[in-house]
Design brief:
The protein is an alpha/beta fold. It is about 40% helix and about 20% strand. Strands 3-2-1-4-5-6-11-9-10 form a nine-stranded mixed sheet. Helix 1 packs parallel to helix 13 and helix 10 packs antiparallel against helix 11. The two termini are about 20 Å apart. The structure holds calcium ion.
Length: about 300
Amino acid sequence: MGRKVIVDSDTASDDTIAILLASRLFDLLGVTIVAGNVKYQDQVRNALFTLEYIGKKDVPVYLGQDRPILNKWRTVEEVHGKHGMGEWDIPEPTKRPEKENAIDAIIRLARENQGELEILAISPLTNLALAYLREHSITKWIRKVWIMGGAFTRGNTTPIAEFNFWVDPEAAKVVLDAGFDVTIVPWETTEEYGTLDLAKWERIRSMNTALSRFFERVNKTLLEFSLKQGNRGSVHPDSLTTYLAFDGSAILEQRKFKVDVELCSLSRGAMLVDWYSKGGENANVVLKADSEKFYEKLTSILSSS
Ligand SMILES: [Ca+2]
C-alpha cells in the first residue's frame, strides 16, 4: 500500500481534483470537511459525489468544523460556481458521511497510524487546529502536514492574505506553532507553477474520458474567474500541493523559515515569512515546482478512465 493520507478539504472545484489525485497516488484513509469555499452542505455533497464518481465510494467522509474559530468569513461561489462544482448541478450522491466527527477521526487515525499518517491540508486549518488542541500528541503521531495556504507577497483574497489563511488565521497560527513537520505550498508558488493555460485545457478536453469531462465541468467557473483576474489559465493550488506531496523531486526549491500569521486588522491572514530567520524555523516553504511534471501526472490520471 502507498503512503497513508487524510485530505482535509473545503470541497469545491480544484479540491475535487486533489481528492482524485490523492486517491490514485496515496492510500487515502479519509476526507475531512471544513468550512471554506462554499456552503458547508454543498462541500459535503461535493466530496461524497466526487468519491462516488471516481470509484472510491469506500473512502470515508467525516464532517468537521462548519465555521472558523473566530473569523466571520465569506464563501467564494464566484470562484467555484454556485454550489462549488462549476455550473454542474450534480446529482444527489447515495454515499453518506460517517457518524464520527472529523476531529475525532483525525486523532484516531493519527493514533492508529503513528509515524505514518500524513495530512494534506488543502483548506482552512480549523479541523487540524482543534484536533491538536484536543490531543497534543498528534504532532508526534502525524508524519507530515502539507499545507496549501498563505501568501507573503500578494494575496488572492486581500492584498496580502491567501483565502485558506484568511478564513481562519487563528487556526493557521495554532497549527504553525504546534510543532508539526510542516511543508507549505503558498499561493504564489501555486499561481506560478499550478496554472493550466488554454492549450493545456484543450489537451484535457480532447481526451474525452469520464475523468477529463469531470475535470472540465468542476473547473469551468474557476477557469473563467482566473482568466478574468488576468491569469493565463486556471490555478490549481490544491491539486499541485497533493502532487508535490507525492513526488518530492518535483519540488525544485524549498527553504525552512520561521513562519507566522498576522491576526490583526488590514493584514489579517497574511503569512509572515522571516526570510533571514536564524533559529526557530517551523515550516518548509516551497518556492519553485516542476509544473510540467504536475501536468503530466494529472493528465495521465485524467486519461486513465
Ligand atoms: Ca481547498
